[in-house]
Amino acid sequence: MKKGEKVEKGKKGEKSRGEKSRGVRGKEGKRGGEREGVERKGGKGFGIFVTFCVLFLFWLLLSGIFDAFHVGAGVICSVIVALISHDLLVRERGEKVLLKSFRFVIYLGWELWQIALANFDVAYRVLHPRMPIDPLIIEFDTPLRSDFALVTLANSITLTPGTITISVEPERGRFLVHAISKKPADALTVEKTMQNKVADVFMEGGQEKGGEWKNDMAA
Amino acid sequence: MIGIIEIIVVILLAAGVFFMLTGAIGLLRFPDFYTRLHATGKCDTLGEVLIIAGLLLHHFFVYSSVPGAELSVKLVPVKLLFLIVFIFLANPTATHAIMKAAYNTGEKPWEVGEERK
Amino acid sequence: MIKIFLAVGLLIALTILLALCRTVLGPGVFNRVAAINVIGTKTIVLLVIIGYIFERPLFFDISLLYALLNFIGTLAFAKYLERGEVWSG
Description:
Chain A is mostly helical. Chain A contains 7 helices and 3 strands. Chain A has helices at residues 2-9, 44-63, 68-85, 97-127, 147-159, 182-189, 193-202; strands at 136-141, 163-169, 174-179.
């Protein structure tokens, strides 16, 4: 069951760990799948350094006390935690990180506006005396393959009007989505505004418009 | 005298409470598990973020801009900002996780014309 | 301002009561887990507001910690209900 669990989550940390053998995660089993479009370089040192910086920054900002004892304790604790769990935060050294971060911040601005719209829509449906809902489940493919892009799109789908992600398949970028009526479902599959924006941010894959959705009910 | 900051804080708090109440009413009114998660997963998150943003503004303009304050009081807006970011990331993820568990265990969605569950 | 915070706190307590109704009523376990998640997130905001009413800055740290615990608790529930075990191996 442990290897099945790793395959299901699509863990990609095997390659960046170097030749250090970790026992159970050995030679057999799928090594998290080879996905195109994602750069894979950089070693352990970079991961440990970035994790240490992030953790120490959190320590300084959350404690607010800057005498020698507390700062020293912060350094020691950050180093220990970074050594143990650096591969949870940093997987590989991606390329063009600054450009992607800049576009990501702009995308966040658009998303905040969509969140406001979503909540007015849900409030209207809840408080309306007739409660106009018509739920359905749809499924579609996207050209996104990296972890961060899939997580961003899944989070955006959950936070925007009328749709919630049910499950994601990382190999084909396939999303299973529950929509509350036909209009949000069409906005997601026919016009594909959100997917194109996320693909523009992370620069993965060619986007095309149009396509049909198939109505996939849980049988 | 009522300043402009207090008016903005009261507006943010009122909007946050309105969205939270809407989420809770949706939890009681909707006919099916998946639609109930729609109501809480979206409205809860925004209502919380609005309330904490209102409290952040209040703290920033009342406590933090006083020159004689100590540093752990001045850094409270940073903690509240962390809380906002964490809620934005964590609430949709928890909603998605519980919905995936329900879907994989075979919970059937509701269609128009059936009775409430 | 304290009066406004008290009013907001009372309304949030009312919201928790409504979610508690769903915990009692909801047929099956998934409705109840979703309602408990709602109660947890309301508690976070209630703790911050109580911190402002009583003017103790300790409550913000407690609410940050409880946000983490609530998130992990809901994820553990979801994993257990889906697979029958939380951590294998």
